[in-house]
Amino acid sequence: MSATLSTPRLVALLVTLPFLVLLLIGLRDWRQSDRLFPGLDPSAVTRIELARGRAQVVLLRRADLDRWVVLSAADAPADERRIDALLRDLTRLRGRPPVTPLPAEEPLQLRLYDRQGLTLASAGFFDRRAVLGARHLMLDHTPSLPLWPSAWSTLQPPRIAADSIVSARRISAAGSTPLSPSDTARLGTILSRLSAQDFVAAASVNWAGADYLQATRRDGSLIEIQSLPAGDGRNHVRLTSPTDPELRMARRYAWRVEPVLP
Predict the structure, then answer these.
(1) Residues 59, 124: one domain?
(2) Which domain holds residue 145?
């Protein structure tokens, strides 16, 4: 038997060797890293706060409902699978001392609380970095922490068929003005395309100066609409109805749409 490696075995060894080196380096780095939140029990977390500047998302596990809601967005139903995935990810998250200084921008703040309001964990997050009091760690990966309510919610907008709107009028201090057939059709199209992608709590919007519209559906029921520029080229609209329970529930939320009136 030859003591030398055959050519195929030598080629296989040369191909495999770099991967083994990378694996050993990764194992070394893992052993040198620390858990970000050692001992964190996901089942004990009942409140999650995310904030950066004026942007904030608060998630709460309501004891009376035994489910998560987006507290900062009028108790919209929360995506429990996403919250569970985040908490599991945080228990596995690891970091090690960095070799470069912290960035200058403001970190995204995360705080976890239990049912008694006691803080279970808190940290400030940059891209691949975390600050825990005086500690600064480079993370093995960046947790997903979006700062808009729709990312954490399963909320769906009310269903309104475009052709169900047969007439509409604008109501102001000066009186009531019917919308033209083309504007009525446009309103119906906009209402049929409501999306929860960018919803916010209606109470967080200052509705002073909003346009007030009233739409009549084919069945004779009314939809009352407030519309106000959202500052990004679109409008916030809030809907309610004296007869439709789905729309009365939707009054708690403001939906972003293209401007209702030209």
Answers:
(1) yes
(2) 35-152
Choosing from 152, 174, 203, the residue where a domain stops is 152
Nearest to 77 by CA among 57, 59, 56, 51: 59
> Tokens for 160?
């309104």
Cβ count near 69 (within 10 Å):
20
- State residue 214's pLDDT score: 97
What are the tens digits of pLDDT across the range 40-87?
999 999 999 999 999 999 999 999 999 999 999 999 999 999 999 999
Q: How far is CA 112 from the centre of its chain?
A: 17
Mean pLDDT, the chain, rounded, equals: 88
